[in-house]
Design a protein that fits this description.
Elements: E1 2-4, E2 9-12, E3 38-43, E4 48-53, H1 66-78, E5 87-88, H2 92-95, E6 110-111, H3 112-120, H4 125-136, H5 139-153, H6 175-188, E7 200-203, E8 206-209, H7 214-217, E9 221-229, E10 233-242, E11 245-254, H8 257-274, E12 275-281, E13 286-291, E14 299-303, E15 308-313, E16 320-326, E17 339-347, E18 350-359, H9 368-379
Length: 381
């Protein structure tokens, strides 16, 4: 459920030099026991973590690797480096790929659109290699892009060696990192995300079903990806929406196909049942007017560049406490979008989230006299 929140701001004008970021939400009801080696539950709207166990532990990512493969192909499509109808040749390497396949033929070129369906719905390793080659010229060059993108997204425990997720020395990721790339697909490429909800795909006269069982058993689930190797165990990233909320569950190292689905379902049900997501602020809405020194105006409207939400245990919205900490002294010139403060959110004294506050307009320098006068005033402040 989504609420509008009206609460007062407590102002504390202090200089800050801390990095903003989301903080795990305090639990009112203990999360369920999950039979997996590592797992994670995220509220996509707020970006906050609701459950995390061994989430930063490096593990073999299996076919969850293909999330990054798809992400880079989506970007290439958006940048017009590739076209969905573009025909890609099938190399010997792609054709001979081991494991799950879409059964492409080296004698027949395949469209990028068909390859994406084969990579996402059928989890085809042959499709993943063909897409990598179509995008970067070779799988090796594509892997370099994968690792650069992982670093940009903040995937701190990830190193890719191939585009498929087939077992390889030193190829690792973590539940946190895999949650980051899954959330990035949902956020950055909503036009392609529906591919993850397709239940089956037919290519080369062979129909294969999506291995994500929750697409059949839970009407709220609309993606995302499964993975399986001997080393990784059974893995699943599942995403579901109820109303405006979207949750993302990452389950790594379950014991069976049925177990990874049931454990992901437990996490999703827990998040929807016991938590609310509250809208704190709207994009562009003024939160406060902050004092400016040496500026053409003596105050600047401050707010946020995007809608801001917070996730918290159900029924506790009215107990939130919001504190604004502004840069002091705030000196002109100030550019639009410049960080001028931070809003900290706490619940019963425990941190819930931190949100950077930015200037909503420019403030140029005052005249020479005005700057000199403010300099004198600051001496006595």
């Amino acid at each position: 459920m989504l609420f509008s929140l009206r609460t007062s701001l407590l102002f504390a004008l202090v200089f800050f030099s801390i990095a903003s970021g989301q903080i795990s939400v305090p639990a009112a009801v203990a999360p369920p026991s999950i039979a997996a080696r590592a797992y994670l539950l995220i509220d996509i709207l707020s970006g906050q973590t609701l459950v995390a166990v061994n989430a930063d532990e490096p593990r073999e990512p299996a076919s969850l690797t293909k999330l990054m493969t798809a992400y880079l192909v989506f970007r290439a499509l958006k940048d017009k480096e590739l076209m969905p109808s573009q025909m890609a040749p099938v190399s010997e390497k792609a054709w001979r790929a081991e494991g799950s396949r879409m059964f492409i033929d080296p004698k027949k070129a395949v469209s990028v659109d068909e390859l994406l369906h084969g990579e996402i719905v059928q989890s085809g390793n042959d499709a993943a290699i063909a897409l990598a080659e179509a995008t970067a010229g070779s799988e090796e060059a594509f892997v370099e892009r994968m690792n650069r993108e992982a670093a940009r997204l903040g995937m701190k425990n990830t190193r890719f060696v191939n585009a498929t997720g087939l077992p390889a020395p030193q190829q690792v990721s973590s539940a946190t990192d895999l949650g980051l790339i899954a959330a990035a697909i949902i956020r950055d490429f909503p036009e392609y995300y529906p591919l993850y909800s397709i239940k089956e795909y037919r290519y080369n006269n062979i129909t294969q079903s999506n291995r994500n069982r929750l697409l059949w058993s839970d009407p709220y689930v609309d993606g995302m990806k499964t993975g399986l190797t001997d080393g990784a165990g059974y893995c699943l990233i599942a995403s579901a929406t109820r109303g405006p909320r979207r949750l993302l569950a990452v389950v790594l190292g379950a014991a069976s196909d049925a177990a990874r689905a049931s454990e992901a379902q437990k996490l999703l049900n827990y998040g929807f049942q016991f938590y609310d997501t509250v809208q704190l602020y709207q994009n562009g809405a003024q939160v406060s007017a902050l004092k400016v020194w040496k500026g053409a105006t003596n105050a600047v409207p401050a707010g946020f560049v995007a809608d801001q939400y917070v996730t918290l245990p159900k029924g506790q919205a009215q107990q939130l406490k919001l504190t604004l900490e502004a840069v002091e002294p705030l000196l002109a010139p100030i550019t639009r979008g410049q960080r001028v403060g931070i809003v900290k959110v706490t619940l019963e004294g425990k941190p819930v989230g931190e949100y950077p506050l930015v200037a909503l307009m420019e403030v140029p320098l005052a005249s020479l006299f005005g700057r000199a006068w403010d300099t004198i005033r600051l001496w006595f402040k």
